[in-house]
Specification:
The structure holds two protein chains of two kinds. By secondary structure, chain A is α+β, with helices and mostly antiparallel strands. Helix content of chain A is 47%, strand content 19%. In chain A, helix 12 packs antiparallel against helix 13 (310-339) and helix 12 runs antiparallel to helix 15 (390-426). Chain B is of the alpha/beta class. The chains are: A alpha+beta, B alpha/beta.
Chain lengths: 617, 150
């Protein structure tokens, strides 16, 4: 048994490590990929966005560079500085380069204002304390102020502003006035840039998505999109009930434990490796099942339109052909997985799955584009086709369009699920490349229409759980220019104060006396179990927002473990209750318990074995 | 950044809330006016140029505009800043034209249109004042006191 145990532990650690890599990455999009979300995410760090989080307890937390976690029930407040945004846009427009350079100069000076004023203080001190006036140490300090004085005297507008300010009455005030003039000048230049960019039709878009295991769902942001907010949903902070998924996993673990107790563990593990989830997911897609229906409708219409306009009939034929070719391809692909023997090399299998999913998505997108194009052409031919089949043709067009839209959505989602499952093992990075694209429901807001603040209320983001992700994207563009992503933040949803979660596990149980094997029995009994765990205990609320690895990899927990045992092998269930500590997101569980049936103690260790990982969840 | 005064001290509050205290002895009384007598003006001027650690604003003339300029400059003559007033400036013109210029300062040609000049500790002319605007004075002083001979 120990021979099996050691490879199992190694396999488990490897699988877990891979799962951590796989779930923490986003699509080949460098500026989205798990970068810490914060104002530092804005490309030049110019503070266009200021963000803070208000958690469920009303605590306000300024979102700074390095924050990677937000509370799953919190509100994210985003302030947008239009002038700075406009300045950044101008910085990328060649004709505004002179204005941009001036602005940058004034801003730099203002950033160092405090240092400059301190330097002046030092110079005055040195001068006053020096008995030898030929000692020009003070002057060396004053020379450090030369750049700002030069800037003032060389910029006519800044100079004019300086002259309008109230007369100064001290040496210090002379310089304070310089910075006041600069500050006013910065406001003026930013206002000028804002006006210019408004004229050029620049707009911005702000969007947010909730990313769970399967899908990226847009979140409504008032004033920025026309999505409908979801019904309020609160993630339970103290949850002691097993989820449906956990219950399913517990059943699978129970079956595995039963089989392992009877046949040995190695045999049981073989049954875990299955890829039929892909077939189930795709073949059962409602939209895919509609393909046959659409094909039949097309055939029917073609049959009755033999005498109608030739162009119309040919369009129908083309649609049908494209649909049939696509269906043949998909059926072949599904058949391949139905008959496939699990590959002994998981890496090869994953590569193949990924390649197939990519091709499947490409083919689907091609079909959808072709269908939409054909139906658009068909619209104009319907009239020419004559009155007899007009109504039928209109219905068909609608049917084909609806089919195309649903198919694309469904296949995309199925592909994501397949890749999610595959990504658990491969750590592949190129998933969900299109998941965070703005739809037409996200408003293009010209610079004068941007609200000062945006609110992302996660309570209205829909059903979610810890471990899901919040993605925020902010971009700008105009009709003549490609849209640029200015900021993208990727935040993981975890409670930042202690919380309770349940975990299931496959236990290796060693009854007392420990490490003493009974005759004709293996050292370990195998048992399904579940634990109620207190988590989030070991880091402060501030640190816990920054340490993603704490939540995603370590996530330690302490709590109670309940296991179903059968020490006497009589087939009737015995309940064991014990204390447990978990680490690596409950993947490794250790504890000691008591069999409530006979009072016998036992130690145990267990794993959250990803039995369903090869199937689609 | 905000500035506020408490008694005679100046406190400077930075953007992050940090407060810098400029001591009261840094707020000094102004230096007295130095008048360059007409017959001794050039000699006096030379002597003053040799004085170490002084920044000068030289007012060249005795008209109402010059007097206004002189008074306003005097109100800003803190620490190393000194105001020299030459009611009869003609004798100084030639000497002034020989002084080196801070980069960006145009050579002195028509002295009649010049109300005053600022001179750095290294005796460079740093600003030529052709208007009596009050803040020309501040800028003239600032240009001179921040200039170090290359």
């Amino acid at each position: 048994m120990r021979k099996i145990f050691i490879p199992l532990v190694l396999l488990s650690v490897v699988l877990y490590g891979a799962s951590c890599k796989g779930t923490g990455t986003l699509a080949g999009r460098s500026n989205v990929a798990d970068t810490p979300g914060s104002t530092a995410g804005v490309e030049d760090g110019s503070g266009i966005l200021d963000m803070y989080e208000v958690d469920a307890g009303g605590k306000k937390v300024l979102m700074t560079e390095g924050q990677r976690i937000v509370d799953p029930n919190s509100e994210i407040h985003i302030g947008i500085n239009r002038k700075k945004l406009s300045a950044l846009i101008s910085a990328r427009v060649p004709e505004d380069s002179a204005l941009t350079a001036r602005l940058a100069g004034f801003r730099d000076a203002l950033l160092s204002e405090q240092e400059y004023i301190k330097t002046l203080g030092v110079a005055i001190d040195l001068y006053n304390k020096s008995s030898d006036k030929s000692d020009l140490a003070w002057q060396m300090q004053m020379a450090k102020l030369a750049p700002v004085v030069d800037m003032l005297t060389e910029d006519k507008e800044a100079n004019a502003i300086y002259n309008t300010l109230p007369e100064s009455n001290s040496l210090t005030e002379d310089y304070v006035k310089v910075f006041k003039a600069f500050s006013i000048q910065v406001d003026r230049i930013e206002a000028e840039m804002l006006e210019r960019n408004k004229q050029k039709g620049y707009y911005v878009r702000l969007g947010a998505w909730l990313q769970d295991k399967n899908n990226a769902v847009p979140i409504h942001i008032d004033g920025f999109d026309s999505y409908t907010p979801n019904s309020p949903y609160t993630v339970e902070q103290f949850n002691i009930v097993l989820s449906d998924e956990q219950q399913k996993l517990l059943t699978e673990i129970a079956n595995l434990a039963d089989k392992a107790n009877k046949e040995g563990l190695a045999e049981a593990m073989k049954t875990m490796v299955s890829m039929n989830g892909m077939i189930q997911a795709i073949a059962s897609l409602p939209s895919y099942q509609k393909a046959k229906e659409v094909e039949q409708a097309l055939s029917g219409l073609i049959a009755v339109s033999q005498q109608e306009a030739e162009a119309f009939r040919q369009s129908l034929e083309r649609i049908k052909t494209k649909l049939v070719v696509y269906k043949v391809y998909m059926d072949t692909r599904l058949e391949k997985y139905k008959n496939q023997v699990p590959d002994q090399n998981p890496g090869n299998a994953l590569l193949q799955i990924n390649a197939d999913v990519r091709e499947m998505l490409d083919r689907t997108n091609q079909l959808v584009t072709a269908l939409q194009s054909e139906t658009a052409a068909l619209q104009s031919q319907i009239l020419a086709a004559g009155g007899a089949i007009q109504a039928q043709a209109q219905t068909l067009v609608q049917q084909v369009n609806a089919f195309a839209v649903n198919l694309k959505t469904d296949i995309q989602a199925a592909g994501d699920r397949v890749r999610e499952a595959a990504g658990l093992f491969s750590g592949a990075n190129d998933f969900r490349t299109n998941a965070y694209d703005f739809t037409e429901k996200v408003n293009k807001l010209t610079l004068d229409k941007i609200p000062d603040r945006a609110l992302i209320n996660l309570e209205f983001a829909g059903k979610r759980d810890v471990g899901d992700k919040l993605v925020i994207k902010f971009s700008y563009g105009n009709e003549n220019q490609q849209e640029h992503v200015l900021y993208s933040g990727n935040y993981h949803l975890y409670f930042c104060t202690p919380y309770v979660r349940t975990a299931v596990g496959f236990l290796f149980v060693d009854p007392a006396p420990l490490f003493k094997k009974e005759d004709s029995k293996s050292l370990f009994y195998y048992a399904p179990s579940y634990s109620i765990l207190l988590k989030g205990l070991f880091l402060s609320s501030e640190k816990t927002r920054r340490k993603l690895s704490y939540h995603k990899i370590y996530s330690p927990g302490v709590g109670i473990n309940i296991a179903t045992l059968d020490f006497n092998s009589d087939g009737s269930m015995e309940i064991g209750v014990g204390g447990v500590v978990t680490i690596f997101n409950d993947f490794i569980q250790l504890g000691y318990g008591v069999n409530t049936y006979d009072g016998k103690g036992y130690s145990f260790f267990g794993f959250k074995i990803p039995i369903g990982a090869f199937s689609l969840r | 950044m905000e500035y506020y005064f408490k008694f005679c001290d100046i406190y400077v509050q930075g953007p992050k809330g940090h407060i810098t205290h400029l001591k009261s002895n840094q707020i000094m009384a102004t230096n007295p006016l130095i008048t360059l007598d007409s017959d001794q003006a050039l000699h006096q001027f030379e002597t003053l140029l040799d004085e170490p650690g002084r920044v000068f604003l030289v007012v060249l003339g005795d008209d109402a505009v010059h007097q206004t300029l002189r008074d306003k400059a005097l109100a800003k003559a803190f620490s190393w800043r000194y105001v020299l007033w030459a009611p009869q400036p003609g004798v100084l013109y030639q000497r002034l034209k020989t002084l080196p210029l801070r980069p960006g300062v145009l050579p002195l040609l028509d002295m009649g249109s010049v109300y005053g000049v600022s001179i750095s500790v290294n005796n460079h002319i740093c600003r030529v004042i052709k208007e009596s605007n009050k803040d020309e004075i501040a800028q003239a002083f600032m240009l001179a006191e921040t200039f170090m001979q290359p």
